[in-house]
Design goal:
This protein has 104 residues and is mostly helical. It is built from one helix and no strands. It is rod-shaped, with a radius of gyration of 38 Å.
């Protein structure tokens, strides 16, 4: 929690705070410090949650755009296939008409 602050550093900080505020103000300082730390953690957690939400939204937007692109590609492939089938049918009809006109 305190990172690289060891026991000797904590004792030094306690002594400095005790000398600055005195024994009567020490409980008030500790209460204030505790509230400040709690608010800081709350703010950090809210910011972290907001960032994670935005990242998730960005990922969802990216997925939606990829899905739209895939859908366009599928639709265009179906159009090409359909047009090819129609062209094939038209050629068969043309062939049949030529055969009928040759006979008659």
């Amino acid at each position: 929690m305190f990172g690289s602050i060891g026991f000797p550093e904590l004792v030094l900080i306690f002594v400095v705070v005790l000398m600055l505020f005195g024994p009567k103000k020490l409980p008030e300082f500790a209460k204030f410090f505790g509230k400040a730390m709690r608010e800081f953690r709350k703010t950090v957690n809210e910011a972290k949650a907001t960032i994670e939400d935005e990242i998730e939204k960005a990922d969802m937007t990216k997925d939606i755009n990829e899905f739209k692109q895939d859908l366009k590609e599928i639709t265009s492939i179906e159009d090409i296939t359909e047009k090819a089938d129609i062209a094939k049918d038209l050629k068969e009809i043309e062939k049949d008409i030529k055969e009928v006109t040759r006979i008659g």
